[in-house]
Amino acid sequence: MKKVSEYTNGNFIKKLKSKNKFKAIEELARLFDGAQVCADIDELVNALVEREKIMSTGIGFGLAIPHAKIKSVKDIAFAIGISKAGIDFDSIDGKPVHLIILVAAGDRQHKDYLTLLSRIMSILKDETRRSEIIHAANAAKIIEILSIE
Amino acid sequence: MRTVRSLNWRGLAEAQRGLLTRYASTDISKYISHIVFSVVLGVFAGAGAILFHTMLEGTRHFFEFFNLRTYLGVDFNLIFIFPVAGAVVVAAMTRYLPSIARERDVTSVIKSVLFRNGFIPFKVTLFHFFAPIISIGSGAPLGPEGPAAKMGSGLGSLMAQIFRLNQREMRMYAVAGAGAAIAAVFNAPIAGVFFGIEVILLNDLKNQAMSALVISSVVADVFSRAILGNKHVFRIPQYSSGDVGDFPYFLLLAILCGAVSILFFQLRRGSSFLLVKKLRLSNEFLRLVPVAALFGIVLLFFHQLYGIGYSTINEVLNHHYSLVIVLALLALKLIFMALFLEAGSYGGTFAPSLMIGVLLGHSFAVLTNAVFATSLDPVVFALVGMGGVLAGINAIPLTSILLVFEVTGDYHFILPLMFVSIIAYLVVIYINKGGTYTLELMKEGIDVSKRGEMDLLGKIKVRELRKTDFDVVSHRTPFRKLADILMHSTYGDVFVLNDRKDLLGVISLRQVRQAIVSHELTELLIADDVIAEVPVVTEDDPVSLAMQKIEEYDLETIPVVKSEKNRSVTGVLTHRDIIQAYNRLLDAWTTDQFLTDSKPRGS
After folding, report:
1. Which residue has the higher pLDDT, A144 or B584?
2. Is B456 helix (H, G, I), strand (E, B) or coil?
């Protein structure tokens, strides 16, 4: 089984400039541009935004996991966005989000999609790991943290 | 005193009526009646077969070359007149009774069982009793089994009509009668049963007619043996059953049997083309009489082709003929069998297949021995060839094995017989893409293949089976609530609707079990995240389409929507309900179910 850290790479990790959750989602989704992950980034952004409008993916503890499963995604992957200032995500606990994990999957990758979400959740429920990622010096350090499951 | 006596009689009559009513309503009465009717049918079919056999043998004996001079003082050279005379009578019968004459061969029995609940008018039975006797008795190189089966099923049908039995029972005894007649004609009860299963019931082993088929076949054969004696048709000389090293040669023989069967089908097609398309012979006399005349002339040189050919089989088995004669007989038998059938004569293909098999197997062994200096026994190859060609031409491997085994009464060659019969059958099935009877029925637009079974479901609409106790959720439903609904859902899945109440997809318990078990996801997911694409059907679609989609997507249920454009859900169709409906339809087995849409119904 692939490690969780293998579903992302240094190019998919970014310190976010956006202050708005929808803009933050788009900023993060655009990291997949030209990376053979998704053939239609606009479709992905649209799906993520629509999903976010139905119910917030901000699950509290400063963490949000926007996700979408669409046809134009070739291979399941995730991007990581860090916002030191925090973004209002309408989270369950009402607190701003500092760490965003954006998951994109193909429409037929149902099982892998749920498995990856579940594994990400189990890593990030640990407050120390969340804090280490948010305060990591660089992308390589974040991937190193994620590689420990 | 008088009053008391009167009361007693009335009481007794009432008691009798009561007992009869109670007896008639019990299960045991049904079983006993079933056995009694099967026995009665066995006796009638056996008697019919004996009469058929006796009249056929009598006619054949009368026309036999060596007896003609004795009885009629006719010169041997005038022998060709008799097939012609027979052809004239048979053509006249066909011309003046066309609707009855049309109900020829075994496929007509299959059709009567499929479409008319086994109803066969007695005049049809009578016609097809006498027509083959005249036809085969005057020399036509055909067999008695098709007409015998027709007569047997006709008697079964007649018995059901006389005793006013219901449609299911009439169908059952029509099948049993066919098997019983075959059992009596060939002295082969097991083959009779398997003939009923493979040919008339089209391999339906679970059919209700099975017990009647077995009982009637046994009784018919016992009756036939009691009257005609317990002798075997063929005189088999001493032979060596061969060893393992002979099996490659048996394989070659099997392929040859298959090839010869295919050649026979080609010859039939060719004969049909010649008589109907090329020569445009629509008149019954013009079609059959010239064929019979030509055959009569050939008989002057090859009298062995006369009639059923059992005596020729015995002579070949006992090495009476040279290789050249055997090969010539093989070619001529194939040609005239095809010509007579297409020209409108009456008779079956079982007995001719046996003769062709013997001629083929015998010549194969003799030729192989001459060319490769082997020591194959022509007798065993001839016997095995019987099964191969019988299985190939008629697409009945099990009946072939058992028939050859029973008519020879010899077990020693059973292994090569089984091997060759099944390989020859497979060769024919591979090339023709179907069995003889299946393809014959297909020509009339009657599909009894697997597609036909699916079409059984095509006769009912989705609306007739749909249920309305399905579960739906909004695509906004949080996962925790969704899991709860799924756990209590009727079918283990829920349909997901958008805000306009249109169907977006389905979520099944199986699909999200992982998410339910790992509690981390319950706060993150909503129904929209775990939707799976699902095929839909509309209320007017045939159930066969629903079944096709269910199998393709490996589903337990399929949503029913208003139309292709309006995706609001009106019901659900379950795999289980479709299977139950299918079984009900099979039980009903009514007229229209096996008809394809492309062609008109078989009569």
Report:
1. A144
2. helix
d(CA B161, CA B124): 14
Q: Is the pLDDT of residue B63 over 70?
A: no
What value of ipTM does the predicted structure carry? 0.88
Residue B220's domain comprises: 31-228
Domains of chain A (ranges, CATH numbers):
4-146 (3.40.930.10)
| Coil vs helix vs strand at B424 | helix
- pLDDT grade for B201, boundaries at 50, 70 and 90: confident
pLDDT tens for B435-482 read: 778 777 777 666 666 544 546 677 788 988 899 989 999 999 999 899
CB contact under 8 Å between B525 and A117, yes or no, is yes
Task: Check if the beta carbon of residue A121 is closer than 8 Å to that of residue A96.
Answer: no
Beta strands at B557-561 and B537-538: parallel, antiparallel or unpaired: parallel
| pLDDT band per the 50, 70, 90 thresholds, residue B74 | low
H helical segments located in B344-443: 350-372, 378-394, 397-408, 414-432, 436-443
User: Would you say residue B601 has pLDDT above 60?
Assistant: no
Enumerate residues 6+ apart whose C-beta is below 8 A from B219. Answer: B38, B39, B41, B42, B43, B46, B180
Would you tell me which residues 495-524 of chain B have a C-beta closer than 8 angstroms to some C-beta of chain A? Answer: 511-512, 514-515, 518, 520-521, 523-524
What is the number of domains present in chain B?
3
Q: Could you say which of A65, A110, A117 has the minimum Cβ distance to residue B532? A: A110
Task: Look at the pTM and tell me if it is higher than 0.95.
Answer: no
B554 touches chain A (CB under 8 A): no
pLDDT band at residue B260 under the 50/70/90 scheme: very high
Taking Cα atoms as reference points, which of B373, B405, B372, B370 lies closest to residue B387? Answer: B405
Q: What is the DSSP string of B490-518?
A: SSSEEEEE-TTS-EEEEEEHHHHHHHHHS
**Claim to verify: residue B320 and residue B436 sit in the same structural domain:** yes
Name the residue with higher pLDDT: B79 or A16.
A16
d(C-alpha B366, C-alpha B374), whole Å: 9
Q: Are residues B158 and B195 in the same domain?
A: yes
Q: How far is CA B591 from CA B142, B332, B459, in A?
A: 31, 41, 12
At a CB cut-off of 8 Å and minimum separation 6, what does A92 contact? A56, A58, A59, A60, B523
What whole-number distance in Å separates Cα of residue B315 and Cα of residue B309? 10
